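Deliverable D2.4 — example input (structure tokens):
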């Protein structure tokens, strides 16, 4: 089963480049060019991972990340903030909001795919551990 990645970025060229790269690596890709729509898609589609820009129309990436990470239903979805906001304070804010990784544009696409796979593998292990714990508690 292919893993689904949501890209939320307001630059169509960036979305296109990321989509091509991710599809070539076996992922299903969905996307949004707008913060509010991106948040709605995350909640409805429940992607396996989200790639999120900071500077977005209608709602910034920091707020989207916080809303998802502080919601019990969505906190487990790994979020990579991929942004041109390269100041230390921006990175700290992104990580404080719950982002699992903060990557600056321009980015190394091979390193991005490696980080995606790493986060998805960790996510899978955490889910398996939670399932084992839940099963043990049910006994």
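Example output (designed residues):
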């Amino acid at each position: 089963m292919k893993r689904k990645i949501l890209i939320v970025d307001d630059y169509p060229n960036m979305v296109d480049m990321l989509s091509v790269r991710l599809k070539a690596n076996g992922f299903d890709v969905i996307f949004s060019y707008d913060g509010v729509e991106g948040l709605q898609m995350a909640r409805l589609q429940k992607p396996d991972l989200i790639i999120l820009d900071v500077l977005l129309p209608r709602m910034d990436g920091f707020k989207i990340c916080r809303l998802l990470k502080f919601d019990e239903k969505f906190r487990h979805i790994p979020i990579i903030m991929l942004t041109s906001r390269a100041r230390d304070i921006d990175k700290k804010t992104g990580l404080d909001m719950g982002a699992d990784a903060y990557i600056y544009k321009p980015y190394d696409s091979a390193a991005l795919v490696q980080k995606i796979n790493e986060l998805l593998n960790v996510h899978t292990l955490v889910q398996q551990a939670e399932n084992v714990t839940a099963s043990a508690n049910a006994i």
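The first helix runs from residue 12 to 24.
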